[in-house]
Write a structure and sequence with these properties.
A four-stranded antiparallel β-sheet has the order 2-3-1-4. Strand 2 and strand 3 form a beta hairpin. Helix content is 39%, strand content 36%. The model has no long low-confidence stretch (mean pLDDT 97). The protein has 95 residues and is an alpha+beta fold. It has one domain: Alpha-Beta Plaits (2-Layer Sandwich).
C-alpha cells in the first residue's frame, strides 16, 4: 500500500470553489480500481486549509491516479488557480 498526504491552502474567498472541486475529484478518484481511500478534510478553524489523505494499492495505482483525466484537469489545472499545494508526502505501512 502507498499513502499520500497532501495539504492545500485556498486563496482568500475561494474556499467554496475548492470544496466543490475536491468533492468532484474525490468522487472520481474513488472509482479508480487501485484507489483504496480518498478523503479530503477541511481544517476546523482555518477554512482555507485542506488535508487530503489517499491510499493506493501500490505505486502503479498511484501513477494511474496521477495520469487520470480527472486528476490532470482538477488537481493540475483547476485547483492551482484557486490555491496552493503546500505539502505532499508519500508513506508506506511498516507492519
Amino acid at each position: 500500500m502507498v499513502v499520500l498526504a497532501v495539504t492545500w491552502m485556498a486563496k482568500v474567498g475561494r474556499e467554496a470553489e475548492v470544496v466543490a472541486i475536491f468533492e468532484k475529484l474525490s468522487a472520481e478518484s474513488r472509482k479508480e480500481p487501485g484507489c483504496l481511500m480518498y478523503q479530503v478534510h477541511k481544517h476546523k478553524t482555518d477554512p482555507r486549509r485542506f488535508f487530503v489523505y489517499e491510499q493506493y494499492k501500490d505505486d502503479a495505482a498511484l501513477e494511474a491516479h496521477r495520469t487520470s483525466p480527472h486528476f490532470l484537469q482538477m488537481a493540475k489545472k483547476d485547483l492551482p488557480k484557486l490555491g496552493d499545494r503546500t505539502e505532499g508526502h508519500l508513506f508506506e505501512p511498516i507492519g
